[in-house]
Every structure is written in structure tokens, then in C-alpha cells.
Amino acid sequence: MTLTPDAPLLFFDSGVGGLSVLGPTLKLLPNAPIVYAADSAGYPYGKRSEAEIASRVPALLGRLVERFHPRLAVIACNTASTIALEHVRSALDLPVVGTVPAIKPAAEMSRTRVIGVLGTQATVRQPYVDELAARFAADCTIIRHGSPELVELAEAKLGGDIIDFDAVRAAAQPLFDAPDGDRIDTIVLACTHFPLLDDELTAAFPGITYIDGGPGIARRIAYLTRDQAWPRETQPGLMLFTSPVRHPSLATLTGYGIGEVKTL
Ligand code: DGL
Q: pTM of whole model > 0.90?
């Protein structure tokens, strides 16, 4: 099949988290047409069961692919990727890029060899995380914490609310209260919502290095589409929600190239 220059990149998350992957992608591919789908009807994924995610995500992505004919789909969500990536890949006939916890680069950076993994409750219990830890960080102590509060705080921030620093600190504090937690020097932001709180997290825990997958995923998308044609000019992106919700502020979304917001 020949791709036309206006074939979009499809981004998918439960909410606004995928913007932390879209941002670095647009730095590399500024003219890429974007469709960003937020499954607000299924939000928050972190509180759902594996079975719910495994049936919901491939079905929804299948519908979106039929409707928008993207050149590539990005599951910009660690919860959906760690549970359903393989299933989505086998169900769809296009390249699918997932988002998995950046444990490998964290292990390359940590000096204390104690790494925090901050994700959703569903992500931090996945065997996929055990496999990444065993493969890339076997000599590190990995401390995990699932925080639905941080997901909510990121949604609120993008909705235009002023964020309470103490609430951000309290949400991540259990990592440091765990045995050996006082030796953490590197934290993997294993939920795409969390880099949206980078400033707040850095202020709450100075001296910690935060690592997220966004820039690496952006490079992967650019690599996979390296021989493809793009529009000559920047296109306003489309953001879709699966239910009527309070949208993130349009001023924020413009910074991510989004020009239109709709309910699917
Ligand atoms: N942004 C998502 C992730 O990366 C999920 C947040 C949620 O819906 O709980 O895991």
C-alpha cells in the first residue's frame, strides 16, 4: 500500500499522558499529521484488570485504524503496552510502537544501583517489568510504586489547574519510604502521564534523575518512517476523546500541535 503524505501518526492513551510522547515526536517530525485518541471512557487504565485492558485496547485501536488509516500507531501508555502490545501487533496490519518502562537507560545511569519505578498500579505488577529488571538491571535494587494520584494530578494540570506540590510529593514518597528507598538516585517514569509533572517531581525530590521513554520512542517513530513523505507544512492535529469529558486546555494542546478536539 502506498502511503500518502497526509497519512497520520495515531497516538493512543487513556488520557493526556501520551502528550509526553507526542511532544518529542513533533520535535523530530514537525509536519507529521497527528490523530491523538484518549480513551476517556476507559480511564484510568491503571485501576483496570489485565483482562479489561487486553480486550479493550486492541478493539479500540482496530476501530481507529479503520477510520483514520494511520501510517503507524503509537501506544503512548505503559499500562496498555505492558499488557496488550503483542496482541495489538498481531491484530493490526501496520507498525505499532509501544511504551515500556525505561529500566535499561535507568540502569545505565544509576550510581547507587537503587532505582525507583513509578507507574500505574497495573503497570508495576506486570511480569514484563520483572523481565526488564532481570535483563537490564540484574545488579540493581528495583523499588516499584503504583500511583493513581499522580495520573489524576497530571490530568488536572493539563486541564489548567494549579498543582499542589505537596500532593505530588506525597504521591511519590512511598518509593523513598520502602527499604533502601533512601538510596534511590534514579526514577523511571513508567507512566506517560508522569513526565507532564516533571517540574513538580524535580522540585519535590531534588537531586533525583528522572527517566522516561518519550524521546527514545520519538527516535523510533522517526526511524520507522524515515523513507516516508510528509506534508510540506505543519498540520493542526486532531485530539479525540471516547466520552464527553473536561478537555485539557486548548492553550496547552496548541503547544502539542493539536488544533481540534472532538468526542469520538
Ligand atoms: N498514561 C498511562 C500509562 O502510561 C495510564 C494512566 C491511567 O489511565 O491510569 O500507564
A: yes
**CA 50–ligand 1 middle distance (angstroms):** 13
Residue 2 lies in a domain: no
In a shared domain, residues 20 and 71: yes
Q: What tens digit of pLDDT does each residue of 166-209 get?
A: 999 999 999 999 999 999 999 999 999 999 999 999 999 999 99
Residue 1 pLDDT level (bands cut at 50, 70, 90): low
Ligand 1 atom showing the smallest separation from residue 43 Cα: 8
Domain termination site, one of 212, 228, 247: 212
Q: Give the pLDDT mean for 110-127.
A: 97
Ligand 1 pocket (Cβ < 6 Å) reads: 13-15, 17, 43-46, 77-79, 120, 123, 151, 191-193
CATH code of the domain containing 55: 3.40.50.1860
Which of 73-86 are b and which e, b meaning 16 or more Cβ less than 10 Å from the residue's Cβ? bbbbbbbbbbbbbe
State what percent of residues in the chain have pLDDT above 90: 94
Residue of the nearest CA to atom 2 in ligand 1?
A: 77
SS3 content of the chain, % helix, strand, coil (to 5): 45, 20, 35
Q: Tell me which amino acid residue 133 is.
A: A
What gap in Å lies between CA 76 and CA 83, rounded to an integer?
13
Residues 251 and 183 in one domain: no
Of 191, 196, 242, which is best to mutate to test ligand 1, by the most ligand atoms within 8 angstroms of its C-beta? 191
Is 47 in the same domain as 108?
no
CA of 86 to the centre of ligand 1 (A): 18
Query: What is the Cα–Cα distance from 97 to 105, expressed in whole angstroms?
Result: 18
The residues annotated as belonging to the active site are 77, 191
